[in-house]
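Homework help board

Subject: predicted structure for assignment chain

Our instructor gave us this sequence and asked us to write out the predicted structure in token form, then describe one feature. I got the tokens but I'm not sure how to describe them. Can anyone check?
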Amino acid sequence: MGAGRRPRILAVVNQKGGVGKTTTAVNLAAGLALAERPTLIVDLDPQGNATTGLGIQKGGPHPTIYHVLLGATPPEKAIRPTVVDKLRILPSDIDLVGAEIELVGAMAREHRLRTAIEPVVGGYDFVIIDCPPSLGLLTINALAAADRVLVPLQCEFYALEGLTHLLKTVKLVRERLNPNLQVEGIVLTMFDGRTSVALQIRTEVNQYFPGQVFETVIPRNVRLTEAPSYGKPVMLHDLKSSGSIAYLELTREVLNHE
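My token output:
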């Protein structure tokens, strides 16, 4: 990375669970690292699925993002290597549920994440933040720390309802906490081209949000659902699968946005 150049910090956000959010965060981060771009993934979800999906055991004495947010541990002590060279993770576990409560009374509580990771982000080209499935204080911290928001959107009937609410939240954060925050794009996930609903959603999203939708569409793919149980991103599980090819295409699009 060039001297003095800041990394791109992307928050992967959707307040709905089960939309391919962690799958997108993990596989985009892995794709960037495989493209020789040093990348840090920050697991900001108390479920810790990005952590286990990259082969890191939860629990035990090792510090997590919880300890970093509360100022108990410097970030460099909590960052761990992963199965992908050039990809590091700031892991999470269920303790993080407590952070949301403990931060409520804290000074500058919306900027805790930004302040906490500031000493280490200079070592990376990209920082990917995997947010919890809610628009609570942890997600607001991610939006306050990020430059860009990437929204995975499942191709299902109620998808657009939640999207409007999420984009309103992004606008509020831009006005009050982080004037630099932009939408990187919306990525359609779990796409099944055989269903009329999926095709209809794709048409509607492009119509309502022109220029904000990635060309790459992530298909429904069994290899994508298997890979986390092996503690690997999909590229290391099955490079030729449709899921792997799609996330490498998404990686290329994100790199072209630089």
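Reply (TA_rk): Your tokens look well-formed. For the description, you could write something like this. The chain has a mean pLDDT of 92. That's the kind of observation they're looking for.
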